[in-house]
Amino acid sequence: MKVFTSMTEWQAYRAALKEKPLGYVPTMGALHQGHLSLLKASKEHSAVSIVSIFINPTQFDDKKDFEKYPDDSGSDLERLESAGADIVLLPDSAQIYRDDYRFKLTESDFSRRLCGAHRPGHFDGVLTVVMRLLNLVRPDHAYFGEKDYQQLQLIRDMVSAFFMPVNIVACETVRERDGLAMSSRNQHLDAGQRARAATLYAALKHSRTAAEARQKLAGEGFEVDYVEDIQDRRLAAARLGSIRLIDNVEI
Ligand code: AMP
User: Fold this and answer.
1) Domains of the chain (ranges plus CATH)?
2) In a mutational test of the pocket of ligand 1, which residue from 25, 27, 59 has the highest number of ligand atoms less than 8 Å from its CB?
3) Which of 55, 61, 216, 219 has its CA 20 to 30 A from that of 76?
4) Among 73, 148, 175, which residue has the most ligand 1 atoms within 8 Å of its CB, making it the best to mutate?
């Protein structure tokens, strides 16, 4: 496994890379089975699989959330090595934002709804970093989780809008045994919150309407940001204490 911390060195290596297809998995680290399932999908379809770890500051609307975001690249690298990643990119913020974030990508409709309505600027940060990373890696396939469904949809739309030559592959949400979607944020839940957290998935899946799901969540002590049915999916974000959880299911 090759690890690049210098993006200049990576770009020189990439320019000489002839193998195809290239698969790419962008992450913010604190890796779990959800992330590794994207790498597995990449390894099935690609000659070379690249994973990046970059905790993107521009997508955090809440500074405290950014500061406490788990950061453990040592154990992440061990996990990636045993899961068979070929290349890992570990850029720092100065390399990704050489322009000090003067240039950004804005979407003016869907990104303002659901999570975007509660996290101003979040999806501008996400789309901007994904555009930069895709340009830096130039993969044939890029893998994203359905867990972040609104993000996935916006990235698909961005790639289509800008004629970007990459195939976006959606991967199913990986869950804990009780149904809780795996997330780097789950490690901040205390024992009581963790026991209640699986209600999010159960309420989305087993309610007849979004309103019924909202009611069940409130009854379990969640502060609900939203539950909404959009086409064939039910999407939600809800907080237990200061931990914000998101999930979605097919309906
Ligand atoms: P993150 O590190 O949270 O930015 O996530 C990196 C990628 O992993 C994104 O495409 C996420 O949607 C995906 N991902 C995160 N959690 C899961 C999960 N439980 N199942 C599947 N994909 C996931």
Assistant:
1) 2-171 (3.40.50.620), 184-250 (3.30.1300.10)
2) 27
3) 61
4) 148
Q: What is the pLDDT of residues 149-161, one digit of tens each?
A: 999 999 999 999 9
Whole-angstrom distance, CA of residue 222 vs CA of residue 215: 10
Q: 0.85 exceeded by the pTM?
A: yes
Contact 146, 172 (CB under 8 A): yes
For residue 35 and ligand 1, the question of a CB distance below 6 A is answered with: yes
Element (H, E) at 53: strand 48-53
Q: Is 183 in the pocket of ligand 1 (CB under 6 A)?
A: yes
Tell me, using a 6 A CB cutoff, whether residue 133 lines ligand 1. no
Give the span between the Cα atoms of 177 and 174, in whole angstroms.
10
